[in-house]
């Protein structure tokens, strides 16, 4: 009964420990509210290593921990039997284990240190694999026949990744061979001593049989202890890395001041910004303010810093210099989650959650079916849903039974409905209609901008026809403000804006 019981208990503990570690990794992600961690490749490498090990390293702690204890008890018992006849042989056999263990621990340390490098390559290998296997890239992969090149790159990268590991395993093989030779030498001496003692009749023949049995058990226990303790040490190194990750912080502090439902003014004062681990300044000396109820359009060429500015306004990053003020106080003084509770956004790279339509719109906030339907209607999706017989419980992915696949434009409308549903004080729209036809675009801007008079809305757009809905336009060039005024005034006073607007206007004539 004991082995089945032990196996069951081990399985239960393993499941709980694995679940505990995975939940803690997710909770740690919640603590890191800045996007700067995603600019740090080392963070990704360590996270990859922890994620890869979360399903089996906690198991190793239990499995190898129990195995070392069992083998240790067996070894002590067998060595004590041996010591009754010749304690020198027992001591030498025990001492042989020490250099072998130290050698294994050192090799295991080297193996563990290569894991961060391997995890970097593992992310690349995962990507190359998903490139050929996932639905998302299936069209281009087949159209351009990317299979041979991607498979070749995968094989070469896999070989490079294995080089260091193979070298470590060769070292481990040499260490094992030396250990085996020492055990054989000591065992041979022991057999000679026992055989001589039997022939001299100082001990009985049964002692020789006992020695043969004991030496086999001792050799097995020694090998198990050395091997399993080195693997246990490897798991302990992973736990140490996990504990360090748990203590990681990104110096991104939340204040304590409450917004209290009043976002009256957001002001940028001499704001400049450079992304972490980069030397290129994206925004330079930005100065402007957004007052409650205003509709602000941000326009400019690609790379002028429009999307970056939205990220700063939502405090996903802090300025490299200057400050952002909320109601006259530094934005850093405010409680971050409370501030974001007053915001909503439709991002250019919006998320396509493989969840129900209801979850995609409500994103786990308090669910109100009627409000979800109204949001979908305002985003221009209701007629489509009725035609296709799609309910709020339909999964938006064919990877799951009964799921459906939406077009790019339909997905963008779902993302817009997500923003409408939040009913936040301040809405940020980053290219919200890039994949939507002109008629739908006009209807959406009308719903968002015209019918929300009291709401503050900041929207990034390349389609300058949308600026007619804006109170003011922030015109960016190369990360600098070249103008901040109404469309009418900018057309008169700003030559670059005038030329850009007319160039786009002429394209439709």
Mean pLDDT reading: 81
The general outline is elongated
Total DSSP helices: 17
Structural class: alpha/beta
Q: What's the CATH architecture of the largest domain?
A: Up-down Bundle
Outline the low-pLDDT stretches: none
What CATH calls the topology of the largest domain is ABC transporter transmembrane region fold
Organism: Lactobacillus hamsteri DSM 5661 = JCM 6256
Keywords: ATP-binding, Membrane, Nucleotide-binding, Transmembrane, Transmembrane helix
Domain ABC transporter: 266-503
Membrane topology: Multi-pass membrane protein
Structure write-up:
It is a multi-pass membrane protein. This is ABC superfamily ATP binding cassette transporter ATPase and permease protein. GO terms for molecular function: ABC-type oligopeptide transporter activity; ATP binding; ATP hydrolysis activity. Keywords: ATP-binding, Membrane, Nucleotide-binding, Transmembrane, Transmembrane helix. Pfam families: ABC_tran. With 509 residues, this protein is an alpha/beta fold. It has two domains: 245 residues, ABC transporter type 1, transmembrane domain (ABC transporter transmembrane region fold), CATH 1.20.1560; 190 residues, P-loop containing nucleotide triphosphate hydrolases (Rossmann fold, 3-Layer(aba) Sandwich). The protein is 59% helix and 12% strand. The chain has 17 helices and ten strands. Strands 6-7-8-3-9-10 form a six-stranded mixed sheet, with helices on both faces. A four-stranded antiparallel sheet has the order 2-1-4-5, with helices on one face. Strand 1 and strand 2 form a beta hairpin. Helix 3 runs antiparallel to helix 8.
